[in-house]
Amino acid sequence: MTTVSITRKALTRGALAALSGLLAGFASLAVAELVSAAVRPEASPVTAVGGAAIDRTPAGVKDWAIRNFGEDDKLVLQLGIVVTLALFALVVGLLALRHRRAGSAAVLVFGVVGTAAAVSRPDSTGLVDGLPSLLGAVVGAVLLYVLIGRLTGPHRDTGDEPDGEGADEPQQEAGWDRRGFVIAATAAAAASTAAGAVGRALNSRSSQNAVASREAVTLPKPASQAKPIPAGAQLRVRGISPFTTPNNSFYRVDTALVIPKVDANAWRLRVHGKGVRRDLEFTYQDLLQRPLIEREITLCCVSNEVGGPYIGHARWIGVRLADLLKEAGVKPPSRGGEADQIIARSVDGMTLGTPVEDVMDGRDAMLAVGMNGEPLPFVNGFPVRMLVPGLYGYVSACKWIEDIELTTFDDYDAYWVKRKWAREAPIKTQSRIDTPKPFGRPEAGTVMVAGVAWAQHRGIEKVEIRVDDGPWRPAQLAEQGTVDTWRQWSYPWKATPGGHTLTVRATDGTGELQTEERTKTVPDGASGWHSVVVTVD
Fold first, then answer.
1. Nearest Cα to 450, choosing from 432, 469, 426, 472?
2. Which residue in 287, 342, 343 sits closest to 318, CA to CA?
3. Sheet with 476-477, edge to edge strand ranges
4. What is the dihedral of CA 147, 150, 156, 161, to 10 degrees?
5. Structure pTM?
6. Closest CA relative to residue 276, chosen from 405, 411, 408, 395
7. From CA 238, how far away is CA 537, in angstroms rounded?
8. What is the pLDDT of residues 282-299, one digit of tens each?
9. Does 158 score more than 70 pLDDT?
10. Helices H, strands E: what count in the chain?
11. Distance (Å, rounded) from C-alpha 72 to C-alpha 65?
């Protein structure tokens, strides 16, 4: 037989070996998905490894991912993990063709990594979280051993001699079980697909109780209702952000690869720690039966770049957090309290640290149960989330909260603080141009420049616009909802043909002018004036 023919057969077997590696990896993931349905969805390998990767990623890299991928950053991470696993599987398949046992054993590395990631997560329930990855890897290793056996034949089951060396062509032909490989590979693909589908269905079914519990909620009428939004708070300018952000458009920035779906009937909240005279525990119904407050509050993420989109406004309903703390016997530091920090823990293990003083200084800090007239959406924290006006979300807006511990800043660093973000993070005075858009081409004449400005818990007193290097001109301000809401503004610009740079700045309710100094989001939020460049036709 010619050298070309032998080479072609070698390439074919190499391709089939790589395919065997892919099938083994697919089977590993599918079985792990199925087993995770008996453990918990968060224990599946992709979720566990992805969560571990997020935990170990430097703050600057996280910020880059949010800036470049936005709310798709988690999808990009998951796709990256799958692609990495696929490449690993291809290499392992080729390795197994030459060294069958070593290749199969290499699949177990997948199980070790997944197990280590699962049990090291902050929300881990113990070693049982490692079972999906471990069992999936065992199945993948066995499958790879079987498939490679169909390519190498019985005489290669335990040997490690290189493929095609020391054997003549008739022996290779006799050892290559094409029919057996096709049958085994097809059966493996079908079984893996079925296992993965069943696993996803079961994991989806496990959240049905949570969905049913949310659908059953009827929010009580709040004891303290929000004041009506002033009629002039929403400007009639095309392109400006709506004063109230719809729930399905509200920004999302968190570390959860799988959105927690918590059964409100099983949910509990514990309050404990330093300065607590007696520990308290609340059910969801306990909170609904307490006097509720309704407030207009704008939230902002610390990852929001100058002019960025990670800010939104909603009408929130919840329990005043200061009342719960007082009931537990907590005093703020200014009144001799032992604790100066609240550690809020989420069901996914996230920890946020909030100054006790800010929560108890009279502002409308709350445990929210409702958003824009409906129970919290799951993505926004159902059944309960925390929020504190005037503070960036990473130190105040714990979603899916289940534990409140009173401690001190000296004793404990929360999740983001361990990653070099600031311990305390009041929201900076900021403003944004919504229209015209960057690189827009408006026509000459009167062009309405408009946008929003915010300085939560201080309010906005003035907004100014500058065209190119000209003087600052006062913008027209919309009515202000409260000091905890953003404020819209507009400026009728007499636009002349050519390229122009529009810049905005704001002054907050204390008289402090927004700083021109440009800083990055790390460690305590971005600063600087927002500008857009346009060409007037």
1. 432
2. 287
3. 430-435, 445-454, 487-495, 476-477
4. -70
5. 0.83
6. 405
7. 19
8. 999 999 999 999 999 999
9. no
10. 12, 18
11. 9
